[in-house]
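Cross-check.
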Amino acid sequence: MYGEIERFIKVWISAILGLCYCYYIASRIPKGFLRLLSLLPILYLFITLPLKLSSPTLVGYTSFFISWLGTFKLFLFSFNKGPLALSPPNIVQFISIASLPITPKQNPSTNEKNTTNKPKWLLFLKVLIFVMILGVYNYKETLHPDFLLVIYCCHVYLALELMLVLVGATVQTLFGFEIEPQFNEPYLCTSLQDFWGRRWNLTVTHILRPTVYDPIRRMSTSFVGPLCATSAAMLATFLVSGLVHELLYYYLTRVPPTWEVTCFFVLHGVCMVVEVAVKKVALRRGWQLHRAVSGPLVVALLAVTANWLFFPQLLRNGLDRKSIEEYAILVDFVKSKLPFKNV
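Predicted model, tokenized:
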């Protein structure tokens, strides 16, 4: 535990030093190819940093924060686009925006309708469910594998959302600026488009749209027309997301990619293209599925495809077991530091 925490601190110190270079030196280079060229050493650093860690939890968050979001934000920054192009007033805010899963609101006063005022009890309920899930793992030998898979799915979702909520709340408290919502109750989705575009991990949505979706759509429109360009942009976005997930899986498992997770995202890209086309025809004819029907259908599709393509590589390499054991070690480590542990 101590050795891994020491390596984790060194990794983040390296990332912060790299971002200091970006803020003080690379930002003074004219935007475009030259700035991108100056950022290549930092992009390489960000991609290799997770390889210095072995803890699934620390590798997962570090690779997501730095190797995915951080590199994409710096790529946009090289062309003076994205959240880092808003000229953060100081180095601390620059580092926070570049290395954490947050997207500052550009026009907070005009975006009030997008602000999610969720009841506090909902967050408390999610924390309670997460704690209960950790307790359920003590009885995993007696539980059915399918039930354990459902529990693990909830575990992954809640761990990610609660971590993003914690990071977002900390940043807003320290700096006072508003950030875009990171999750919007994905279990309430009514379509694939609603799930991927408006509810699930919106931090990724905000970064994939300017880096992949918008450029592909803009370049394709003059060749194939706006309708096909939109479909091509959606497929390209899901393909890139799948490839990045393959990289994250490699960080976590250290085994060659099997391309299952890429197939998962490409499949959902194809399904979403079909869904959008069908909805346009259905709306013209006055047809519309009630959300009580469409919602469960989408959740069922997500569950079946995730069980088929998203989770197998993680489960084959024991990531679920390692994560569970790590949480147990963490709990014991925290208990050992409590002043009243022997009371």
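The longest helix spans residues 202-253. Residues 247 and 270 are 22 Å apart (CA to CA). Passed to J.P. for a second look.
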